[in-house]
Each structure stands twice: as C-alpha cells, then as structure tokens.
Specification:
The protein has about 190 residues and is α+β, with helices and mostly antiparallel strands. It has two domains: about 50 residues, no CATH class; about 120 residues, no CATH class. It is built from eight helices and five strands, in the order H-H-H-E-E-E-E-H-H-E-H-H-H. The strands form two sheets. Strands 3-1-4 form a three-stranded antiparallel β-sheet, with helices on one face. Strands 2-5 form a two-stranded antiparallel sheet.
C-alpha cells in the first residue's frame, strides 16, 4: 500500500490481497468451489458489500477493484504512490502486489534502480507537473496516464558512469544528484521556470 513506501523503500505492513479471480484469466472464481475462500468472504461480507465496486456490481460483491495479475507479484517494479507532493519511486524486488493506490513501472531493458534514479529527478517531476492534476494542498496525482508522459532517454544514451550515479542517487534518495544527471541526459542546463 502507499504507506508501505513512505521511507523511500518498500516496508511491508503485513497486509495481504485475497485474490477472487481465476488464475486462467476467465473471471471471478465460483465461491461454491472454494469453501474456505467463501467462508472468509462471508465473515467480511458487510465490509466488502459496502464498497463502491460491490454496490455497482452486487452479484460480484467480493471482487477487487481491478483484475489481479498474479505474475506481477514476482516481478521487479517501481512503485509510485498515487497522491504525493513530489515524485516518489520505490523499488519492489518482486515481493508484493501493488494496491490500487500504487502505480507501477516495469522494464525489460532498464536496470530499475537506474530508471528509479532518473524518475526521482526534478526533470521527471517537471513532466508530471505539466500533465497531472494538482489537488488541494499542492499534491499531484501520479497515475498511469501521467507517468506514461515522462519521456526517458534511450538506455544506450546512458553511460555506465551516469547509470551508476543514478543508481546511487536512487538508493540514497538524493533528488539533487539525480536531477543533475538527468539534466545532462536530457541536454538541459537547468530546469525551466
């Protein structure tokens, strides 16, 4: 959940996701086939039925907001809390499933710590500020449609030294260093006003 990322690292709070979806992608499970699951849901039925998603689909009252992709749990990913004042990528080494208030980025090409350093920068923040909704108190939404607007250099354009510096900046949560490197990679001398 978002509060598991507050310190800039994944610090699991011990919550679990009980998955009601069939593993073959064919929709919700039949609760009659899973008496233990059915009993668990029935024990929590009042709370589950009170959710907006259950009110919209009363027959599927036990469903999650989004369909669960079990493969995502074991995959390395950068997590982004939905509502923050500044961009806040956090690395998950394939240990958790993101709650619907966390957005995520995966990559087959990027070292996620290097990408995390780039996305920690004020340059990435600038992209979000240009596109995202700003809420009361100055908070921004870091939703998928805004994260997709962040343009990154090609991995081939990132030298080994720049990659190591971004990785180190990400690990230390050093936004200033990440920004300096990002400015060079984007061919900028300073952030626009």
């Amino acid at each position: 959940m978002a509060y598991d990322t507050l310190e800039g690292r994944l610090d699991w709070s011990g919550r679990y996701l009980v998955n009601p979806w069939r593993s073959d992608g064919g929709g919700l499970v039949n609760l009659d086939d899973f008496p233990g699951l059915s009993g668990y849901y029935e024990a929590h039925a009042a709370q589950l039925r009170a959710r907006n998603v259950a009110k919209r689909r009363p027959r599927d009252w036990f469903r999650t907001i989004d369909r669960v992709d079990p493969q995502l749990t074991g995959q390395d990913k950068l997590l982004f809390p939905d509502i923050k004042a500044a961009i806040h990528p956090v690395l998950d080494r394939g240990t958790s499933y993101p709650h619907h208030n966390l957005y995520f980025v995966v990559s087959r090409q990027w070292d996620l710590e290097v990408l995390g350093g780039l996305l920690l920068s004020r340059v990435a923040q600038m992209f979000i500020e240009a596109y995202a909704v700003r809420m009361r108190g100055g908070y921004l939404r870091f939703q998928a449609q805004y994260l997709r607007q962040i343009r990154v250099p090609t991995i081939a354009d990132v030298s080994d030294d720049a990659a190591e510096a971004l990785r180190d900046a990400f690990r230390r949560r050093d936004v200033a260093v990440a920004t300096d490197i990002a400015l060079c990679l984007y061919g900028l001398t300073e952030l626009p006003d």
